[in-house]
Fold each of these.
Amino acid sequence: MGRTSFQKRQKEMKRQEKRQMKAEKRAQKKLAKNDEPTSEFGPPLDEMALPLEPAEAGLDMDVERS
């Protein structure tokens, strides 16, 4: 009978350790997220790398379409 209570105690200790690890990971993610300079609407336009010319986008304006 003493063995089952020992196993239960070991399980509970593992659960507590797991909770602690998850809490630490959440805190680290939160800090990392707060350190990133982002606006609430997403990345600035210069980081999105939009094509400036139609040819760069694969569009050829000189071609006639039938």
Amino acid sequence: MIEYRLLVDLEAVVELDSLPKRSRSRLLLFFEKLRTYPEEHCAAEERDDRGRRISIATQAGWMIYYWTDFADRHVKILKVRRMPGDATRHKS
């Protein structure tokens, strides 16, 4: 098993910081799962402007956009977005 280093973009950090503690904790635990098995959690993909494959995982009403950098052994969390149509509020 390869364990990747987890890097989180400032945009994602700001979004996480705005969440209630319980929701933030759930997402951070999920980030740890991504770090261990990033490809196992990919629900969809898109390409960025450089042609890199951006994986999208879903967790508790959120979409997590990340890039697995195999050469450097990094999982890079790029952004965290509420899933479309998910009008529920997170409870702390």
